[in-house]
Amino acid sequence: MNLANRITVARILLVPIIMFFLLIKVKFPHIRIEEFSITYNQIIAALIFIIAASTDSLDGYIARKRNLVTNLGKLLDPLADKLLVTAVLVSLVEMGKVDAWIVIVIISREWAVTGLRQIALLEGTVMAASKWGKAKTAAQITAIIALLINNFPFTFLHFPFDVIASWVAAIITVYSGVEYFVKNKHVIDFSEKA
């Protein structure tokens, strides 16, 4: 359990804390500015999410820089990312802030690519993250933050950045998933008999 893996585990442990602040039924005070309104618990959840999301790059950087790449880290890092994004997106559906179909599309792609990665590992192949995979992560995090903070500051401009960011995240997520399967179709052998 080296430093990089501890950071990854910390990211996993932050997931239930974020969900607690998003889904707690206690009445928190609101901050109101004209038509914009946000609760303190949403602000806390958004800050924790930003911290958790930023550790994704940090643990990978530390692992590579200090030569601390381990099999445990290879397993935990993508798991932590998927838990974080999935938990927050499901919470946002519960809060009525994002359409369920967008979340289903994103989660389905994540688990489909995870399955493909597992098959590749069994074949002794490591699937590297593509530029579209990285763009997907950035788009998802941007959309989630916009949704968590109630489209601030775009509410004042009457511009639905959070909705557009959600659609962009869904489109890039699907595209990057298709790209993974096209580039790695050799991993799946359909000729094998059960």
From TrEMBL:
Q: Where in the cell is it found?
A: Membrane
The terms under GO molecular function for this entry are: CDP-diacylglycerol-glycerol-3-phosphate 3-phosphatidyltransferase activity
Which InterPro entries does this chain map to?
CDP-alcohol_PTase-I, CDP-OH_P_trans, CDP-OH_PTrfase_TM_dom, CDP_ALCOHOL_P_TRANSF_CS, Phosphatidylglycerol_P_synth
> Which Pfam families is this protein grouped with?
CDP-OH_P_transf
Keyword Protein biosynthesis on entry: no
- Enzyme Commission (EC) number: 2.7.8.5
The pathway entry for this protein reads as: Lipid metabolism; Phospholipid metabolism; phosphatidylglycerol biosynthesis; phosphatidylglycerol from CDP-diacylglycerol: step 1/2
Q: Which domain of life is it from?
A: Bacteria
UniProt topology in membrane:
Multi-pass membrane protein
Major localization listed first in the record, in broad terms: membrane
Transmembrane annotation, as ranges: 6-24, 44-63, 137-157, 163-182
The alphabetized UniProt keywords are: Lipid biosynthesis, Lipid metabolism, Membrane, Phospholipid biosynthesis, Phospholipid metabolism, Transferase, Transmembrane, Transmembrane helix
Reaction catalyzed: a CDP-1,2-diacyl-sn-glycerol + sn-glycerol 3-phosphate = a 1,2-diacyl-sn-glycero-3-phospho-(1'-sn-glycero-3'-phosphate) + CMP + H(+)
* Free-text function comment from the UniProt entry: This protein catalyzes the committed step to the synthesis of the acidic phospholipids.
The UniProt family comment states:
Belongs to the CDP-alcohol phosphatidyltransferase class-I family.
NCBIfam families, per the entry: pgsA
Q: Indicate what this protein is called per its UniProt record.
A: CDP-diacylglycerol--glycerol-3-phosphate 3-phosphatidyltransferase
Q: Which organism is it from?
A: Paenibacillus germinis
